TrEMBL record:
InterPro entries: HNH (IPR002711), HNH_nuc (IPR003615). Pfam families: HNH. This is HNH nuclease domain-containing protein. Residues 187-247 form the HNH nuclease domain. It comes from Halovulum marinum.
Length: 266
């Protein structure tokens, strides 16, 4: 297996939002919008497309390919910011020449060209609050992109670290599936509306009639850390949100924190 290590700016979600911290890359500090801003956004064709700084990563002969190849597959792409792991792709396809993002996305007024393509289920983003693991040993120099293989010291560090992270991601996928089943439950909706009424907890919109009240949905706000497989559903686990606020909170770093969305909307 072959690897690419890329230095990027520190976005919480990499789906078009503003930077969550001061810029660490030269282009970010210059005021330019970083082109990796959508590196974990799902495109209209169902794939995720990733930008690599300085158009790096194009030497496919160092990724198991041959001269003249247009692309290679089965590459692991690792993203770090200030030396700390942000996320990674598994089984990614790397192009010899960057391609225009299929949705014609732009960074500021500049078109985004992407080096990497990956299935969403193979893209793993570390939650912003859990980004504490610093690359070891940290390569010297101000590299934009590095090539690696199983013999690279930083690859060994990465594989040892993500063995534990993968267990967390598998648990999180199960938790999200359980959460979705709760939110689609007519029983849970009836419980929440009876307790909290026809009023969005975030934007405070309210309706008295049942026709317009159809915009209200049940949000399941159990924290990620909960042992959901043994937890009994409680009314305090539920919130009533309008459809717009419900969509927004599911794009927040912590879907259990209704107050964070309220603060975001102010």
């Amino acid at each position: 297996m072959t690897y690419l290590l890329a230095r990027v700016e520190n976005f919480s979600r990499f789906d078009g939002e503003n930077l969550s911290a001061d810029p660490v890359m030269g282009y970010g500090r210059s005021g330019k919008v970083p082109h990796e801003i959508h590196n974990f956004s799902v495109a209209s064709d169902g794939f995720i497309y990733g930008y690599l700084p300085k158009e790096g990563g194009g030497d496919l002969s160092r990724l198991g390919g041959y001269r003249g190849d247009a692309e290679v597959s089965n590459v692991t792409v690792i993203f770090i910011s200030s030396g700390v792991l942000c996320g990674y792709y598994r089984n990614a396809t790397v192009f010899s020449h960057p391609i225009r993002h299929p949705d014609k996305l732009e960074a500021g007024s500049s078109p985004i060209y992407c080096r990497v393509k990956v299935q969403p289920e193979n893209a793993f983003l570390i939650p912003a609050g859990n980004r504490h693991d610093e690359l070891q040993p940290r390569p010297s120099g101000q590299f934009p992109v590095l090539y690696g293989n199983e013999d690279s010291a930083w690859v060994g560090w990465f594989e040892g670290l993500v063995a534990g992270i993968q267990k967390t991601f598998r648990s999180e996928k199960k938790r999200r599936k359980w959460t979705n089943s709760v939110e689609r439950s007519s029983k849970a909706r009836a419980m929440a509306l009876h307790k909290y009424g026809l009023r969005c907890e975030c934007c405070k919109i309210t309706h008295a009639d049942n026709v317009r009240a159809s915009i209200f949905e049940v949000h399941h706000k159990v924290p990620y850390a909960e042992n959901f497989e043994t937890r009994q559903l409680k009314i305090s686990d539920l919130a009533v949100l309008c459809a717009n606020c419900h969509r927004m909170i599911h794009r927040m770093p912590d879907i259990s924190d209704v107050n964070a969305l309220i603060a975001y909307l102010k």
